[in-house]
Amino acid sequence: MSLVLLVVYLGVLWLAGGASRADALGQVVVRSVAWIALIIVILFGARPSFGGMKPVLLLLAGAVLLTLLQLVPLPPGIWQALPGRAFFMEAAAASGQEQPWRPWSLVPGATVNAASSLIVPIVALVLVAGLKEAERSWLPGLVLSLIVGSTFLGLLQFSGAGFNNPLINDTAGQVSGIFANRNHFALFAAFGCMLAPVWAFLDGRQPQWRGPAALGLVLLFALTILATGSRAGLLLGALGLGLGLVMVGEGIRRELRRYPRWVFLAILAGIVGTIVIFVLISIAADRAAAIERVLDLDAGQDLRARTLPTVLDLIRDYFPAGSGLGGFDPIFRKHEPFDLLKLNYFNHAHNDFLEIAIDAGLVGILLLAAGLLWWGLASVRAWRVGVSPRHAVPKLGSAMLLLILIASIIDYPARTPMIMAVIVIAGVWLCERAKGSRGSALPGSGQPL
User: Fold this and answer.
1) How far apart are alpha carbons 406 and 404 in whole angstroms?
2) Which of 110, 135, 204, 291 has its CA 20 to 30 A from that of 95?
3) Does some domain include residue 431?
4) Which H/E stretch holds residue 254?
5) Quick check: helix, strand or coil at residue 74?
């Protein structure tokens, strides 16, 4: 049952889980389906086994607990002692009222939304934990199929075909696949660049027809990333492809031993030639706007640089308590200098590490540090196991989380439901014991996460 529910759940996320905005219609769809799936598992499903994925469970539980604590009303004396609250105290004083009990969060409605959004990764973890070991072997192919579907949709958008998803706040004319943000779509395609080679050699098997299919998919993903015009996507795609090839390098060398050396050179030349032809055709067809953006100065990038001093000031003003999860937009507007005012708004810090420091303060930083520490320790263990493709799944989880961490330096991909589910799946993969190894991808007994 868990496998069927997971397939349906990921399908719904693919359709409606590409936006991060709280008012996107897809949020209602995704969260409703998540609660329905959770109720079905509780009533009719087998008991999930979290034994091999405790770090993911603990980190997710910590995020839920922190978010809920920010909604607990505090006595006036404690609340007034928190940094950054003096301005808000004036509202009660101006109206002649006593200071009321207020929650830790300055924007409790946004924090309620943040808490509600966590049902998505919770259900993803419950469903994955309910899978049998044989069923978990389907996960790489399942995730890859979602990426392929999104890629074809993105190529349709690039061709000029009109497509509007009412469930997400996508931008007309932008190549963003199932996402509202092209950078998030480029990250998704970068996952495919590393996942396709691993899928072809999964568990050390002979690639057979999967080898040519994986090669074609990698080329498709690379062209799609180029079509998005995401400069960060180009970096992530190149890094993802490089890591994917490293994970299955031994398997590739084994297969190429059967052929003359010129075969490899011909394949490489064909890939490069195809990309060059694609670029030339795009320019000739006046569809090179996305490609030109790679070379031009991005106004969004410039805005990130211009807002950085204000963002750093917010960390200082609200540290160590934080202003409340999910409330960056109204908090930033309160502090926004006049020279940054414009018709649209700056919805996020475009650096999730800094935004966590603003919203969650010291506790959020400690939780983030715990997650990074576990990822680092588990990644070292995963990559030290061996070079065989049989050991690739924990490395794949490590590499996917690395791409998300890098993308989070300039954006906020982890706030979309689809990427939330991918984070959970990647975390579970990182927790897996590499087949044929004596060690585990998990820290040993008595060691920190």
Assistant:
1) 5
2) 110
3) yes
4) helix 249-256
5) strand
